[in-house]
């Protein structure tokens, strides 16, 4: 399984959806040039469905973590990265938090710029801290 490649493909498909495309199989096979194995496809489908189903909650969580920014000021590609990573942090939880954040930073740097990686890291670190503060302690 190529989880890193699947995550990158999912970000690109979320980005295409944000711009009015359908982010479907044509995008995956043509524009992205990634042929997923079955478990990769299931992972991509889970991300796309999760981001779409939880879009309002994800955007609210992201917006809450912005300092001096609003969602409409964020570059669309960075917002796509943030939505995918926020979904993984808040809903999927099968990938370690540090891996989700590190890969989101790498994707922001790849698709945007090094400074975008710093921005994404800051937002996701704040989101993770907020999420962890809301979770009751297991030993309490």
Structural features, described:
There is one protein chain. With 140 residues, the chain is mostly helical. It has one domain (3-134): Orthogonal Bundle (N-utilizing Substance Protein B Homolog, Chain A). The chain is built from seven helices and no strands. The chain has helices spanning 3-18, 25-31, 38-53, 55-64, 76-92, 97-111, 114-134. Helix 5 runs antiparallel to helix 6 (97-111). The longest helix is centred in the C-terminal third of the chain and has 21 residues, at 114-134. The model has no long low-confidence stretch (mean pLDDT 86).
User: How would you characterize the largest beta sheet?
Assistant: none
Structural shape: globular
Number of DSSP strand runs: 0
What ranges have pLDDT less than 50 throughout 5 or more consecutive residues?
none
What's the Cα radius of gyration? 15 Å
The separation of the N and C termini measures 38 Å
CATH topology: N-utilizing Substance Protein B Homolog, Chain A
- Class based on secondary structure composition and strand pairing: mainly alpha
What's the CATH first level? Mainly Alpha
CATH superfamily caption: NusB-like
Please tell me the overall pLDDT: 86
How many domains make up the 3D coordinates?
1
Helical stretch tally: 7
- Strand % is under 5%
State the helical fraction: over 70%
Compressed to H and E, one letter per element, the order equals HHHHHHH
CATH architecture: Orthogonal Bundle
């Amino acid at each position: 399984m190529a989880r890193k490649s699947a995550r990158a493909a999912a970000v690109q498909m979320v980005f295409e959806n944000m711009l009015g495309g359908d982010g479907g199989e044509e995008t995956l096979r043509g524009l992205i040039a990634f042929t997923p194995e079955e478990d990769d496809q299931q992972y991509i489908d889970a991300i796309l469905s999760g981001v779409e189903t939880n879009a309002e909650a994800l955007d609210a969580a992201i917006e809450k973590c912005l300092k001096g920014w609003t969602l409409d000021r964020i570059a669309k590609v960075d917002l796509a990265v943030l939505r995918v990573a926020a979904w993984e942090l808040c809903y999927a939880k099968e990938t370690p938090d540090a891996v989700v954040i590190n890969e989101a930073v790498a994707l922001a740097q790849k698709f945007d710029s090094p400074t975008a990686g710093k921005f994404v890291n800051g937002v996701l670190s704040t989101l993770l801290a907020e999420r962890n503060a809301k979770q009751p302690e297991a030993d309490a």
